[in-house]
Every structure is written in structure tokens, then in C-alpha cells.
Here is the input.
Amino acid sequence: MEAAAFVPPEFVAPSSLDTPSFRLEPLGPQHNEADYAAWTSSIEHIRRTPGYPDGNWPDGRSIDDNLRDLRRHADDFANRRGFTYTVLDPGTADVIGCVYIYPAADEPRRASVQSWVRASRAELDVPLWRAVSAWLGADWPFEAVTYADRTPEDRRLGG
Here is the structure.
């Protein structure tokens, strides 16, 4: 039996999400150095972010391993198996986080979403979660979405 498609064949994944505080664009190899700098500067912060409960990521990968991972994410995006976006500062284009949209392990038409922001931009965690949640509801074809809630307690991340 053929596996169910994550998104319908006619669906075109958005190329960006723009807000006054950040811009999302598909993650690719061109982001390697900035992406690596963002997450390696924020390992403990990311591990405390809702949706990263097991502490397995971020890990100790090298910048070359990170490049391979970014290529895999770009390939997943191109082949519609998952959609990973880098989160950029709209003024500087510096990487400040990431959003991952992949099929849930138990239900391919349900999206499992994770996001993080670097520790130095912790104040953007809740606004990113809100913007991505609204975007998923308005512009994506998922039957359901799992995305760790950001409660008032979570707003204290990083500090």
C-alpha cells in the first residue's frame, strides 16, 4: 500500500512568512554558517524550548554535518516530505531560529511542528509560535497540527 502524501499534490508550499519581527524562508545549504552559529550559541536555551523534551538535539555535530543536514532539509522541502524554514531577522538577514514542519509519525496527514529561536532573541519565541500557528491554519492543508503550546510560563525562556 502506498503511503499517504503529507500534502496534496496541488499544494504549493509558501515561499515565505513575513512579519515586522522576523521572516521565514526555506532553509538550505546557503544558511549553513549562520544556522550553525545560531543553534550552537543556544543549545541549552533550545533544549528548554517547548517541543524539545528529550534533550537529543541540539547535538555535537560539526559544521560539515550541519551542512549535510541542511541539504537533507532542502531535499525534503523539494520532494514535499517536510518543510523547514529558517527564521531571519528582517533588518540584518541573520539567522535567529528555525521552524520544522514534518508529518507526525503516527498520522502522515497531521503535521508535527517544532520551532526554536536563539537565546539572544528569546523574546521572539511566543510571537514566532503565534505567527506560525496562524499561518498553518490559514495557508496549509493539514487536518491537524501538533505544535508545543507556549504558555505564560514558557514566556520566561532564557531568563
Q: What stands out?
A: Residues 22 and 89 are 5 Å apart (CA to CA). Confidence is low (pLDDT under 50) at residues 154-159.
